[in-house]
Amino acid sequence: MSGGTVVAGAIYADDGRLLLAQRAYPPELAGLWELPGGKVEPGETLDQALVRELCEELNVDVRVGVRLEASVRLKPGLDMVAVRARIVAGIPDTTEHLDLRWVDADMLNAMDLRGEIVPNDRAWIPELLADLRE
Ligand code: DCP
User: Fold this and answer.
1) Which residue, of 20, 49, 79, 132, has the fewest CB within 10 Å?
2) What is the pLDDT of residues 43-66, one digit of tens each?
C-alpha cells in the first residue's frame, strides 16, 4: 500500500488572480484544470514538497503560505491538501502541463460550471472563490 499525501499549490499573483494548470495526463483528466502539485516524498515536509513540485513543474520558486481547509481522499491512504503560495522568482512555464491560466473569481466559477476543473480539486472551489473575492 502506498500511503501518503499529494500537495497542490493555490498560487496567487500580486493582482489577486489564481494560477490554474491544464493537465496533460491521464487521458480522463487531460484538458481539465487543476492546482499544480504532486506527491510528498519520504522525509519531506508538505512545504518542502510543494516548493520542489512547483519548481519542477512550473520552474518557479514559491513562498508557501496558509493551508486551505478542505482535504480530499484520493484513495485509502492517499490524501490531497492544498496550500496557498506566492511566486518569489521565475515566470510559470509549462513543462508537464498543456497550458497555464491566471483566473479571477468569475473565470474560476465559469470554468467550474462548465466542468473544466479536475473533479478532486472542486473541493477547494468555495475557499478559492472566497480568496479571489476578498
Ligand atoms: N491530483 C489531483 N489534483 C491535483 C493534483 C493531483 O487530483 N491538483 C491527483 C492526480 C493523481 C495524484 O493526485 O492521482 C498525483 O498527481 P500527479 O500525477 O500530478 O503528481 P506526481 O507527479 O507527484 O505523481 P506521479 O509520480 O504518480 O506522476
Assistant:
1) 79
2) 999 999 999 999 999 999 999 999
The Cα–Cα gap between 131 and 3 comes to: 30
Please determine, for residue 1, whether its predicted confidence score (pLDDT) is greater than 50. no
Give the number of the atom of ligand 1 that is nearest the alpha carbon of residue 119: 7
- Domains present along the chain, CATH in parentheses: 5-129 (3.90.79.10)
Instruction: Give the per-residue pLDDT at 2.
Output: 56
34 lines ligand 1 (CB under 6 A): yes
Alpha carbons within 13 A on the beta-carbon side of 101 = 18
The pTM of this model reads 0.95
Collapsed DSSP state (helix, strand, coil) of residue 89: strand
Contact 114, 40 (CB under 8 A): no
Cα of 132 to ligand 1 centre, how many Å?
24
Task: Please say if the pLDDT value at position 3 is more than 90.
Answer: no
Cell of 117: 476543473
Which of 92-131 are b and which e, b meaning 16 or more Cβ less than 10 Å from the residue's Cβ?
beeeebeebeebebeebbebbeeeebbebbebbeebbbeb
